[in-house]
Write a structure and sequence with these properties.
Pfam families: Exo_endo_phos_2 (PF14529), RVT_1 (PF00078). It contains 38 helices and 28 strands. It is α+β, with helices and mostly antiparallel strands. Among the domains are: about 210 residues, Deoxyribonuclease I, Chain A (4-Layer Sandwich), CATH 3.60.10.10; about 40 residues, no CATH class; about 80 residues; about 190 residues, no CATH class; about 160 residues, Alpha-Beta Plaits (2-Layer Sandwich); about 110 residues, no CATH class. The strands form eight sheets. Strands 5-6-4-3-14-13 form a six-stranded mixed beta sheet, with no helix packed on it. The protein has a six-stranded mixed beta sheet with strand order 7-8-9-10-12-11, with helices on one face. Strands 16-15-18-19 form a four-stranded mixed beta sheet, with helices on one face.
Length: about 1200
Amino acid sequence: RSLYSLWRERSQEPEVRCQCEVRGMWWLSSHWGQTMQAGLFHLKVLQVNVGNARLAQDMMVQLTREKEVQVAIISDPNRRRVPDDDARWATDPGCLAAIFASGERAIQRVLSRGIDGMVAVEVSGIIIISCYAPPRFTDEQYAKLIEGITLVAAGRSRVVVAGDFNAHAQEWGCPRTDWRGEELRSMAEQLGLELLNRGSVHTFLGTGAAPSSIVDVTFATSGLVATQSWRVEQRGDLADHAAIWFEIEERRSPVTPVHVPIRCQRRASEPSPRERQWKTALYDEPTFLRSLEIQRFAEVPANVVEVTRKLVRACDETMPRRSKRSAPKSPVYWWSTEIAVKRRACQRAFRRLQIPASAITRVRRRAVYVYRRRLLRDAIAASKRRKAQELADSVENDPWGNAYQMVMRRVSGASKRQMIEPTLVEAIVGELFPRHPPMEWPEEGTGHGVGPFGMVTCREVIAIASKMQQHKSPGPDGIPNQPVKSAMRCYPEVFRQLFQRLLDEGSFPDQWKEQRLVLIPKPGKPPGLPSSYRPLCMLNTLGKVFERIVLNRLQEHLEMDPAGPHLSPMQFGFRRGRSTVQAIQRVVAHGEEAIRRGHYNRRAERFGMVAALDVENAFNTVSWTAVGGALQRRNVPNGLMRIIGDYFRGRMLTYQTDEGLVTREMTAGVPQGSVLGPTLWNVAYDDVLAATQPGPTQKLAFADDLVVLAAAKKSRRAAKSVEEEVQRIQSWMEQQSLKLAPTKTEVIVISRAKKGNQHTTLNVGATTVRTGTTLKYLGVVIDDHLSWKSHVEYAVDKATRVTRALRGAIMKNHGGPTSDKRRLIASAALSGLRYAAPAWAEAALAVDSNRRLLARAQGLAARGVASTFCSVSVEVASLLARMVPIDLLLQEDVRCYRGREAGAGAAAATNRNQERALTILLWQRRWSAAAAAQGASRYIRWTNSILPEVEPWVTRGHGSVDFHLAQVLSGHGFFREYLNVKGLAASSDCPHCLVERRVRVVESVQHVLFDCPRFADIRRTLLGHGGRYPVMASNLGEELLRSPQRWREISQACRLIITVLQERWTMDSASTAAEVAEMRAAEREAARRQLVQRRQREQRQSQPRRSLNTAAGEEPAGGVRVRVRLQQWGAGTGTRLWQRGWRGAVPLLQFARTVVRAGVGQLQRQQTDREVRALERLRCRDLQQHRKAARARLKR
């Protein structure tokens, strides 16, 4: 059947089809996917033991994508393949058991992960417990595991327990029942769990030493799992265990929350939020504007419905809509056709191995299977390396593309999937958006009358459009920012008339009051709790533009009223001319004053207390009535009052669950993600700051972050003043339907007192808070002595983690982007070091340890940018990477901030350029002093001789430093002089000159580049030797900066020379390792001979002569009956020779005695070989460490 016939059949259903009038093609908005029966819950589960094998775990992840598995229960996972801080994974402390939520269902919460061998999570209301009890577990550990399972599963109605228990019982097909199996069976009976294992297919396939058996067991609540769905699949790519599949099917009824208007079932004509969105990657602005021109958009009336309808039609004609359901999962990034072919070959070899055959045939087939597995593993490793290199190379064209996003996701942890289970989502939403009494909005303000206030102009519309970010998520109508931005720029008069009419009417359209909820997980928080999510509301783009117009007029009244500002000067959040730096500086100034007073006067107020208070769910619980009253008290014009009142009335919250789109009525709060919301919060929250009470306390706020400051002669007095102020704040918040979170309160006391002398307690309600040594405020860690060591360590640790991830994925020495793109990415990674620098940098840089920590973090990034060896100094690496030293950069930020605050300079850019010139001058002085110092390194002096001037090198307009050129410029490379210093070469002499010229010359970078005869051809061709302007050590830097052509020639010469040196060193290292291995082998053979001789002597001296009964057993009533069991030693085929029935045969008895002696001798020889191998491992340990270190150094 053709696609056209399928489409004709589907075309009878109601769907949106739009003909593109400009492009002349059709877009279909429907998706031909499988539909699930209403009310039927379905969950596909994979259970497997990967045996701590990387190949098995990689194939398991690919298998979950191929089979659309929702949850994978994993025993004995590979620890290196389990990502850290990934919400899709849950493991026990020892990483013996894991659960991987690979599908759309997210892990709602982790119930238990503190017992080795067990992890329990909740997925869609089902408790899933993954277990692994290795054979090394003692009886106490196994009993603790069973007890942990019992505690978690007791009283639960929907439970699945699965894993490898290494327990045997006849109930699941084992020939016997051991102690572990008895305990496991008793636990299942106690919890009322049903055994799902069916048949006699072995789940453990055997390793050669251990026979195959059934040790992977699955239990579930009766009726939860379809029994016929449980099956075992023996595969050849999942280590030595089989894969177990089963499906959880349950019919669920829709859950309707109480007291909340709700619509769980979506109507057929109502599109889902995903269906309302378009594929913005295919957006073309000229085509979109042409579509608006065809629709005569310039003549559209000033009506919200008509403007939205024409924008939607233009989007339909120029962009395809997203499908109803997400596309099928793509394979893992390293998957390829070659790997698929090798996997099939591996599975064929495994199936042939299961066919009964002779011993020799099985040995051959097993060898083939092992060979196929090795090929599959090597193919996966090669594909990963190739894809990683391609990803790194893509940074050159797109620095902030997939490569950078993947690295940042790896550092911050993969984002949690959206919760879609109705009961849990409703509980979270109900906690985050509580219901309030009906709003009482003031009818008329006491302000300046109805108007007129500022008229909307086309210039204002264009200015708002120019500041719109293109890649923001759309609201419920799905219209992206790009089309709205283009339309506002091309047709500003249409939007001006629309917004002016709304201002004149004092109304806010109902179409813009719907907000789509997105729950953003907070990093490091457990899933499933309301406090673990930050609710963001996606609003319609046109509605946010109108909010901006209203906000401009509201801020003009609040901030620029001739009567004076109507907001407290202690509010620093979301206000013009105020920033986080100013708020932090206020807190720091309070602490500095306490330290200063304690320095010269012991009786002064030398204890400065800082208490950071947290408001529970502040933005979503603020009362609309309180907002209206605060606006009225600030004499807001009546027209704005009517618009803001209508802005709150009838607001609806929509969110998605697996039962449909849910709509909830809003009764309080300002939308997080709105334009007008933060300012309305400031107005409502301003009363707590404006209320002045007698006492030594101060209050300042940044949005909902409130800080109380107090100073006293004793820390306890300061605490009492803060407690009184907190009581007043709590009383005010109770009136405004707000609530403090006492458990999140942080308090420190800043003073010069010795550590511990200033600590005290603070009572916040019924909670007693102990003062700490550090406090994190607005992203800056403040310690109790203002040494800033804690903040520097915090910022350096964060920057180092990001830099290491970038170096491992993007900034490798071989390949990847150029140094310019690397420097751009490294600057973003180190940007956290410069955050709020004017508030702390000057004091922090006065401490030497802080400067060293900052330089260490920058040095790691600079070495990645310049592709140098890890031993290159920070000074040289920063110069080669053209990265200004971090301490000079922080000082420059402080000077620029002070210049802006003082109003010096015509523009910020001019001020920055002037300060950058001063920074370069300071850098030059430091660089010259480092090379001229008495104990300066020879490598720093070499680099300084090439690049004595900083400014020409930093401001050059061409050239990129790569791995080979960096070795020449730094002196750290594959030169015998450097390798000998690092212990990687036996001598520093040049091997070529020693052999060919019989001259002992040190192989330094200068000798290799300009003197060694083996590179004479390269020097003549690329360095101009023999011509008028040869490149020498004295003019190497000047020649590099002369022209791009000269740079390329010198860089090519360095690449050719360094490649030869690297290959020669690799060959020498391999030959040296081979010689050492031969020497160790000879020593091992000699040791084996000595050990054998000693064992033989001991045997002859101490072992008595064996009797005939050791080989023949006598029956009590039947004479002599010989039963000899012979096994062919060394062949491994397991051939057994049984001789029985002969009586009194002397020759046969002599033969049996001879065979037994031969077997004993073979056993002794095997024991001797084991001892020799153990001795060999001990003696070769230093050789292995040497090889490992050499490979690591070569890789770097």
